Amino acid sequence: MVSCNSQRDIHIPTASQSQNDYIREWLRHKEDLLRILLEMEAAPSPRNCTKCGKDGVYRCTDCMHQPLFCTDCCRILHEAHPFHRIQQWTGEFFEDSALHMTGFQLYLGHNGAPCPSASPDIDEVPLHLRPPANSKYLTIIDVTGVHFVRVQPCQCLDADSYHRQLFQAKLCASTFEKPSTAFTFAVLDDFLRENLECGTSGMNYYSKLRRVTSNVFPHLVPNRYRELLRLARQWRVLKLLKWNGFQDETERSSPGDLALFCAACPQPGINVDPDVDLDELVWKYTRTVVMDGNFKAEHMHEKRPDDQVWLMDGRGFMVAHPPYQEYLQATPHITEKSACHNHRAISQANVSRGKLSATGIGATACARHGCFYPHSVVDFQKGERQLNMDYSLSNALGYNMTGIKNVLCFYDINCSYMKNLRKRVNNSPFLHIPSSLQIVPGIGIWHVHGHKQECYARYAPLFLRGSGWVDGEIIETLWSILNIVSASTRGMSSPHRQELLDFQMNDSNFMKMIRIVDSLSRKLKAARASVAMARDAFTKLDEAVSSENRHVWSIQEESALGGRVRDVSVMDIFEIQLKKAPTVRAVELELLEAPSQRGTRQGAASWITRGLGIEESEITLAITRKDSSKYPSETKRLAMARRADRLAVDRSRFIADSQIYLAPLHQGTDADDYSSGMTDVAHHMSAGDDVVSGEEDSEGSMDEAADAVPLKMTKIAPLPLPSNFGIERCRAAGADELVEMELKLRIGQANDALHGLRIALADKAVAFRGVVRQATSYSMRTRAWQMVNSIDSSVRQQAAIYKRCREAMIALGADTDTLTRFQQLHKSHMAVHTAAFSQNAHDHRSSNLPWFWCMDIPRTTSSKNWLTEFYRIHWLRAKAVKDRWEEEEDLLVSEFHWTMNFFKFRAKKWNKKCVSFKAAGLHGAACYAARQKAVYDRLAEQGASKWLNMSPEILPLNQ
């Protein structure tokens, strides 16, 4: 035996040890630990009771060290532990047993002592796992399993009813008349916790209890699953009533009165002094809300919808059922069409699923802290419709909003949703949003990039005054919490589903509340560092701006921010205001709408455009063939063969039509006569290979990974276009008008190619940072490089098309100004620049982007005007970044104080309840109120301590 003072076998772990090191250490002890486990299966020698020394028969597996007891000692010592599990020695092994087999009885009343008025009982004790036949045996479900306990209630004349005696003993009876089953408070609390944290359904939880009772014969344990669901509903409501200080139901209830809301959002009369002038700093006392729908929280049609019992309808986060149904019946649904992109929320608004009474839920939450708004969660009937979200928003904006005059509202489709909101509210007697309440629409930063380009400046959080540094997407993180239980609520009754979702959302808000101080502290430290960086970046940019431009731009910014509520299009000043370069389609439309020149056949512009399109398709197909492996699959070869066949047909038709438009040039001319100015398609394809390169900082070896085995290229005869005949021959044949047409179309085609090139290079940069660098496994890296290779193919295609355009421009006699603008592409131009895709990067001033990144601006714009526009956009956006971070710092300081005021308000409220309860003689309620007051006092003390530990020179202590 090793001495207790021996230090030889003690191993002190070091901080450098990994998980595998600990496991390797465990392997050395594995056999010894297994031997100990097996030795614990045997009875100790001698097999004596650890209490009285008699023959030991029972051992308790829930007591420390599994002590061995005789029958009497086991029964007596477990009077205070009626739900421990015991085992009985058979002579060869220990088998599962139960306390009632020792003669144990549970006495109700008289502090657990036998009732002096009880009559003697001669009922036999049931065997282990045999359901009791006598009504005095109670099936009790505890966290330790299912127990059959002989219960002796108090039988005095003034004794409480049986179910009240059970409840006073922390046993919740399943029925009130002759209960045969009861659940301990502990098991109900444990089930609610497992449901909240793990999403454990009632069926799975009770299945676990059956296995805890008997791991070998769980199917023989009585099934009390239905009773568990019923009592869990009742327990949730009792908990919420207790937590919110409702001693009984005589107090008047109101919507959302059992729900907990955000501690840091401004709530006049609660955490904001009602005497404070809210008009002085309107932006600071602004509510920031976010709306969204969740299609995971489905609900099936009920078998008996009219036979329902609502325990807390409308008192939590889900809206009251009858008023909401009345609103839905009275409100017509208008099919919504978005002027922006076809968003999922709109496209699913009219989707109906026959088996579902609810296709999901919609909710409103505070956008800065992620707390659900009480009485604002609605069910969807046919998807995420405007009428559903109107009801949610209307209820949310009526919760503790006295004196608040400004709201920032984030929603994925606000560009469409907010257009007629006021009209819909005014036309409905069920909706109420004060006309004095100013609602500023916004779109979360993740979703706004899926909208049209103009939506970014109009709705992005960066350009919303008073929003601080918020992303507007926090509600997406809240759905993951609800999705844990969404699957189990699908088949529940409507009241049960409502209660479970309300409880889940209330717990989410509670966890936010107890962690809000730490969250605000972290954000405040990050905000101070970011404010310094944003100010420095803006100062450097501002120094290069003239005082005249600064004055003009400041007026533009203030005018836009002040007028956005009336007309959101004024925010377009944050986008480039210069006219964009023409595309090939725009040029074709211009040529078609222009009056025909004398001698020019009708349709010549469209015919030339067809030729350009055929050229692009042939170049794209050739590069696709080269990018294919040496032995492409049959499916891929078939697809390329079909494309080639279609191109051959299009080429034949185009050449046939050329006899109409270029008849003089075709006389006595074969294909070789006009091909001298153009090489085969493979030559233009190689132009793409010459310019493709990797990312400028570290991924320069991308070509080696992207290059495929080249296939043999087929030389294709050039098309009969003016650029292939040459300008001299065209002029001699009187085809000057066609030359001018093709030159204009080539310029438009070059603009399209350069635009596609910019997009492909930006995609490549994003792919490197978001996919390649994040790949952690071989399969992920393979897919990441496949994505990069696909983008490289697009880069080569656009580069080859551009080279062909420039060659055609030279052949068509383009002037020096045009050729200076459309320069040659080099490999160095294809390096991916961070400044090209990072809208708020601080290094724009020092970044030298390749010439084609500015080619979206027409040449008619002077260099000076373009440079001014470039600085205007970056000055406005850099100032917006600085302003938002400064707002964030101020808001966080205020939110810290509002949180402290919230805790003090709650403590004061519970103190008043404590006094009133004492006066009413409700001593238990008074004690609970005192305990709750102490909880909020402690939260306030922790917040004050955290505040004092932060740097006093940068944080004012008095606000």
How much helicity do the residues have? 40-55%
Number of helices: 29
- The percentage of residues in β strands lies in 5-15%
Radius of gyration: 39 Å
Oligomer type: single chain
Number of strands: 16
Query: What's the pLDDT, averaged over the residues?
Result: 79
Structure description:
This protein is an alpha/beta fold. The protein is built from 29 helices and 16 strands. The strands form 4 sheets. The chain has a 5-stranded mixed beta sheet. A hairpin with a 7-residue loop joins β8 and β9. The radius of gyration is 39 Å and the shape is elongated. It starts with 18 loop residues before the first helix and ends in a 10-residue tail after the last helix.
Secondary-structure blueprint:
Layout: H1 19-39, E1 58-60, E2 68-69, H2 71-77, E3 86-89, E4 94-96, E5 105-107, E6 137-142, E7 145-152, H3 162-168, E8 171-173, E9 181-184, H4 185-198, H5 202-213, H6 225-243, E10 287-294, E11 299-300, H7 321-330, H8 344-347, E12 356-358, E13 360-366, E14 378-380, H9 386-396, E15 406-410, H10 414-417, H11 421-426, E16 438-442, H12 445-448, H13 453-459, H14 474-489, H15 494-543, H16 547-563, H17 584-593, H18 604-627, H19 634-661, H20 663-666, H21 681-691, H22 702-706, H23 722-725, H24 727-732, H25 736-772, H26 778-811, H27 816-821, H28 863-919, H29 923-949
Parallel strand pairs: 5-7, 6-9, 10-15, 15-16
Antiparallel strand pairs: 1-2, 1-3, 3-4, 6-7, 8-9, 10-13, 11-12, 13-14
